[in-house]
Amino acid sequence: MSGSAVAAGSVRIFDTTLRDGEQAPGAGLTAAEKLEVARQLARLKVDVIEAGFPAASPGDFEAVRRIAQETKGGIAIAALARCRDGDPQRAVEAIRVAERPHLHVFIATSDIHLKHKLRISRDEALAEAVRWVRYGREALGADAEIEFSAEDASRTDTDFLLQVYESVVAAGASTVNIPDTVGYAIPSEFSALVGRVVDLVGRDATVSVHCHNDLGLATANTLAAVQAGARQVEVTINGLGERAGNASLEEVVMGIRTRPTQFPELASGVQTEQITAASRLVSYLTGFAVQPNKAIVGGNAFAHESGIHQDGVIKNPLTYEIMTPQSVGLTGSQLTIGKLSGRRGLQGKLRELGHDVEGEALDTIYRQAIALADAKKDVTDADLLALVEQRASEVPASVELVGWSVTSSHGGNATGSVTLTVSGEDRSAEATGNGPVDALYSAVDQALHDRLGW
């Protein structure tokens, strides 16, 4: 097999955030922004960065070329091209300077695409696939990675699909990719398809998968494919991509890492502590917020609000966390306070904020915090600090207001009367003033004058 074979026990992580991820409506990036993301992907230590689609625009060509020129450390730089005259040549030109060039050519193979989109026959599609794989191998040499994707593979006639893969491997493809382009597959059928491709060409080429999330199964299908023998996974940061997105890099990588008995003797080389930084950078540059309940990188992924959960996590984080927050680049878990929180959770949160509160004081603040949670949606750290400080500042009142009354008349004149308790002694006073407020304050002054010397 030409190209770079995947080492035994490894899964090659092919990140397509800068190509398929950027195809999400509204997620376009400038060349400088793509370069910034590529640098973070290099820190994350993905195996392949698919930098773009050079034939799409001069700007994308330049972005791919710059990323190919700058990225070192054994990371391959891929460029996508249709099996159509002009596209592969442009892609080769953009990545030729890369330390490890990776040409990725594709053509649709499903009858619905051949008939309605390309308007060509199966034989014509097969001929184009073979032609441009062979061109890529000749243009980039024996050491380059030449990948072929059969677009809409999961809806392609299986016998024809296998014929295409066998033919492109014979023409020089070192990786064959099985895209679930419209997110149509379910894990059981997708793993069976992957298994057949592995059996057919797995000795001569790396089998790859590229799953979309239209049914919410992109990660499940990808992991099922790995179990069936796929050794390259095409993924994006935050699951970014066309329509409902792609398989999420963080979910696939942490799935393999967290369940070693399901993926025996398999691992990726990803530096998982860089996952959160990558997620936040991509979110910031694209303007796509990460949903709070997103696995691994969502704001609530390591947050606990229920009292039962908080109690368990305080005693042993493994009760409710299957990975450590530090393993994905966070400093720790979060205890959030809401109406379902318990005393231990509140006490733990207050300790995080620098206050060790126990006994009656904790009971009082707990009642106040739960009442506040019922009244407003979020109880913030500032709210909790205010409750603590309010209790700390409580001192016996030396002056208490017992009662007051005020009358006003035309022209602004008013009479106010107050009754106060001053150090346990009731004192009353009456005064006039320019309006009701002035009259009441004057009455207070009179009631306190002898005691306080005003």
Written account of the structure:
There is one protein chain. The chain is of the alpha/beta class. It folds into 3 domains: 12-286, TIM Barrel (Alpha-Beta Barrel), CATH 3.20.20.70; 303-392, no CATH class; 399-452, Double Stranded RNA Binding Domain. The protein has 15 helices and 13 strands. Helix 1 (31-44) runs antiparallel to helix 10 (275-286). The longest helix is centred in the N-terminal third of the chain and has 19 residues, at 122-140. The chain is elongated, with a radius of gyration of 33 Å. The protein starts with 11 loop residues before the first strand and ends with a helix.
The CATH topology annotation of the largest domain reads as: TIM Barrel
Secondary structure: number of strands: 13
Considering DSSP H and I runs of 4 or more, what fraction of the residues is helical? Answer: 40-55%
Give the class from helix and strand content and strand pairing: alpha/beta
Q: Which term fits the overall shape? A: elongated
Topology (SSEs and partners):
Layout: E1 12-15, H1 31-44, E2 48-52, H2 58-70, E3 76-82, H3 87-95, E4 101-108, H4 111-118, H5 122-140, E5 145-151, H6 158-171, E6 175-180, H7 187-201, E7 206-211, H8 218-227, E8 232-235, H9 249-258, H10 275-286, E9 303-304, H11 307-315, E10 334-335, H12 343-352, H13 359-375, H14 381-392, E11 399-408, E12 413-422, E13 425-434, H15 436-452
Parallel strand pairs: 1-2, 1-8, 2-3, 3-4, 4-5, 5-6, 6-7, 7-8, 9-10
Antiparallel strand pairs: 11-12, 12-13
Helix pairs in contact: 1-2, 1-10, 2-3, 5-6, 6-7, 7-8, 8-9, 11-12, 13-14
